[in-house]
Amino acid sequence: MANAEQHEVNISPQFYRLNHLKQRLAVSGSSIWAWTKSGKFPKPIKLSENCTAWSAVEVDAWVQDRIASSQKMEVK
């Protein structure tokens, strides 16, 4: 019989870099940074001295929230 610990899946975190976000969201980098600064967008993570990225899980949740908010507005 297999031990429960043997069945755990170790999923490493996924990240989006700025260029990916600009394409995915169809906005400028300055818009992303402005949203981040104002608290409207997830905070980036400093992966190294020269590498900043955003958590894919947090960004995807943010996108889904925007979609849900938009759909609620259409219903009114």
Task: Kindly describe this structure.
This protein has 76 residues and is an alpha+beta fold. It has one domain: Orthogonal Bundle (Multidrug-efflux Transporter Regulator, Chain: A, Domain 2). Helix content is 50%, strand content 14%. The chain has three helices and three strands, in the order βααββα. The chain has helices spanning 18-25, 29-38, 56-75, and strands at residues 15-16, 45-48, 51-55. A three-stranded antiparallel sheet has the order 1-3-2. 5% of the residues are buried. The model has no long low-confidence stretch (mean pLDDT 88).
- With strands numbered from the N-terminus, the spatial order across the biggest sheet is 1-3-2
Q: Which range does the strand content fall in?
A: 5-15%
Count of individual helical segments: 3
CATH class: Mainly Alpha
CATH architecture: Orthogonal Bundle
CATH fold topology: Multidrug-efflux Transporter Regulator, Chain: A, Domain 2
**Series of secondary-structure elements, N-terminal to C-terminal:** EHHEEH
Percent helix: 40-55%
C-alpha Rg (nearest Å): 17 Å
Give the uncertain stretches in residue-range form: none
Largest sheet composition: 3 strands, antiparallel
**What does the average pLDDT come to?**
88
Principal-axes geometry comes out as: globular
Strand segment tally: 3
* Number of separate domains: 1
| Span of the ends, CA to CA | 55 Å
Structural class: alpha+beta
